[in-house]
Each structure stands twice: as C-alpha cells, then as structure tokens.
Design goal:
Elements: E1 3-8, H1 12-24, E2 28-34, H2 38-48, E3 52-54, H3 57-61, E4 68-71, H4 78-87, E5 91-94, H5 102-113, E6 119-121, H6 129-140, E7 146-154, H7 168-171, H8 175-191, E8 194-202, E9 224-231, E10 236-242, E11 255-262, E12 265-269, E13 276-281, E14 287-290, H9 310-313, H10 317-328, H11 336-355, E15 359-360
Helix pairs in contact: 1-10, 4-5, 5-11, 8-11
C-alpha cells in the first residue's frame, strides 16, 4: 500500500516543493489537504486532484487513513500541528523553523521520537547536487583539515509587508529563521556543532504597507542577520543573510554562496548554479567543476536530473527521503533533531545581540 500523505498548508511552498515530489514517487500518494482558506482548498482540488479536504488540522491528526503529514504552515502553528499529528500516530515532515524557539522544536522532536515515528525538517538545500558533492569531498578528507565555513544569502525583495512573517509572535524572527537557519544547518552538517557565537539581527525596513499600498502594523523582526561561530572541532564560521541586497534578485533565486576552506583546498556551493561547484585543490585557483552524475539526485530518486530548472527540481527529493525513511523504518535526514539544533544556534544569535556578548549554544534535546 502506498504511503498516504496529507498536506497541511496549501500555499506556494507545498505547490512548489512537496506536491511535485509526491507526484513522481510511486510509493506514496496525496490523500488529504488541509488549509483554513476554503477558496484555496477548492483551487487545490482542481490543481492537485481530488482528495479529502478540511480546514481543521485536528481532522488530519485523527484520521486513521493517513500515514504521514507534510506541514507547510506559519511558524507559530508548527508546534501544535506537529505534536497533534505525532500523537495521532503520523510521521511528520515540517517546514523550518520547527518552532518559535528551541524549546518548541525540542518538544516536537520528543513527541515524534518517543512514539517511534519518522520526523523530518524541510531543510531543502541539503538536497542540492553541489551541496551533496561538496559534503562528499569534505567528509572524505579531500580538502584537508577543516578551518573555515562561510555563507552569504542575499535577496532583493520588495520592502512591503511580509504578512505574518514580519511579526515576532507569529514568526519568531525574520531573515534569521527564514533563510540563515538553512545555512546554519548545513554548516553543522559539514563541520559539527557550533559551541559559541556572537551575532546580530537588525530591522532596517518598517514594512508598514501591504503590496497594494494599504497600511499595516510595522515589522518587528530582522531583515538582516549575521553571526560568527566557533565549532566544537576548532573550525570557525561566518554567516550573513539579508533580504535587502539591491541587485541580487536573480529571478527570485537571489545569491547564495557557501564556502568551506580546509588545509588542502576549498569548495563553494551556489544555489544559482547547483549542478556545478567551485573547487580548488593542490594550490590551484578555484574553477567550476561539474557535479558527477551520481550526486545529481539522491540514490533511488525517480527525479530525472537533467529535466527542469536546476535551482528548483532538487527540492523534490525531500519527499523521496521522507517516504524512504518511512518505508525503510529508519530516521529521516535531516530530522527534527537537526532542525532543533539549528534553531538553538539561531536563538543564541538573538540572545547575543540583545546582550551584546558571546553566547554558548545549548543543544540538549532531552
């Protein structure tokens, strides 16, 4: 029997990432959709095909004919939805950040772990071909002893309202939780845990008007964030993210640069060109190197590596990993534990800026 999946949150992320991933994987099927917007539910019935539909996530959590849930809802809803679905015996993949803080994320992790359920954080960029190949080279030791990690994520977004995303009580934070947290995650995946850091998260734009010019409450979250971190293994890292970088729109993909430097060489992942990496070994200048065929998709994925927009299609592999973990009875990667540990770092950035000091990162999941 196929893994029966429900989507909670029928917005753009589900349409862009998750539904295409479900469609190409014959081991699963979309059986239900939940969203408070009834008009959107009707629209998705036409676009995604007929399924069960409801405006209440509790209906999904309690439905015995649903095996797994993908939650793509506003940040403040992640905790109650994920815990309810875990209590209902559902495997859960949830968008990042997992919660409004580390404590919420750790609770989500424990709710799934203690019931023996599969759990997954939708850290999309882990599945980018160039990031996967970079990780392979790094872990194999091709670049020598780890020294530095460096990340830039620059976007040129309109300076109008972000809706719920621009309020701390609903989103937790802005760029830090939305974009930089991805780069925190794959830095820890590559380099190990971050033990201490200093950081900042600053708001430049009030965003007090909607895109159609109507007034709204101004934003109280960051639109720029940065941190310097020390890894437990002795390496160092620098991160910067912003939605206000003029000239970096790039058809919506923006600019991303994630670089690792070792004692024997360096490598760079770029979202703008995810099927190639920049690589330097043996003292040679960096050059663009194609990602080998075996790293263009995760093993077994039905996705065709040379079809579609490269910066988009690798995202479909999230569903394949989630379903594989369910079918094989193993932990999904990245799990809620990875999501919670990344959020512990992001929380420490907020604390560091508030106190204007270095902060130790606490990542005990309980």
């Amino acid at each position: 029997m196929p893994v029966r999946i429900a989507i909670i949150g029928a917005g753009a992320v589900s349409d862009y990432h998750h539904v295409p991933g479900i469609r190409i994987d014959k081991r699963c099927e979309l059986v239900a959709v939940c969203d408070p917007n009834e008009a959107l539910l009707e629209q998705r019935q036409k676009e995604w095909g007929p399924t069960k539909k409801t405006t209440r996530y509790e209906d999904i959590a309690n439905d015995p004919d649903i095996d797994a849930v993908i939650s793509a809802t506003p940040n403040f809803t992640h905790l109650p939805i994920s815990v309810a679905c875990s209590e209902g015996g559902k495997h859960v993949m949830c968008e990042k950040p997992l919660g409004l803080n580390f404590e919420e994320s750790a609770r989500m992790y424990r709710a799934a772990r203690d019931r023996g359920l599969r759990h997954m954080t939708a850290f999309t960029y882990r599945f980018a071909p160039s990031m996967r190949y970079l990780r392979h080279l790094w872990k194999r030791g091709d670049l020598g002893v780890p020294r530095h990690f460096r990340s830039q994520r620059f976007l040129d977004w309109p300076e109008t309202s972000w809706g719920w995303r621009q309020y701390k009580h609903l989103a937790g934070a802005g760029d830090l939780f939305d974009m930089t947290i991805h780069r925190i995650d794959f830095a820890q995946d590559l380099m190990g845990p971050i033990k201490t850091l200093c950081g900042a998260a600053v708001n430049f734009v009030p965003r007090d008007k909607t895109p159609d010019g109507k007034p709204c409450e101004p934003s109280n979250v960051d639109d720029w964030s940065a941190l310097i971190g020390l890894f437990e293994g002795g390496a160092v890292g620098v991160w910067e993210g912003s939605t206000l970088m003029k000239g970096y729109h790039n058809n919506g993909f923006g600019h991303e640069w994630a670089e690792v430097n070792g004692s024997e060489g360096s490598a760079v992942y770029r979202l703008q060109d995810p099927n190639n990496i920049l690589l330097s070994r043996g003292g040679k200048p960096m050059e663009s190197v194609p990602v080998p065929e075996e790293f263009l998709v995760i093993p077994g994925s039905p996705r065709k590596p040379h079809e579609g927009v490269p910066s988009t299609v690798f995202r479909y592999d999230l569903v394949y990993e989630f379903v594989s973990a369910i079918v094989e009875g193993r932990d999904a990667i990245p799990g809620f534990d990875h999501g919670a540990r990344a959020q512990a770092v992001a929380d420490a950035v907020l604390e560091s800026y508030e106190k204007r000091t270095w902060v130790d990162v606490k990542q005990d999941l309980g």
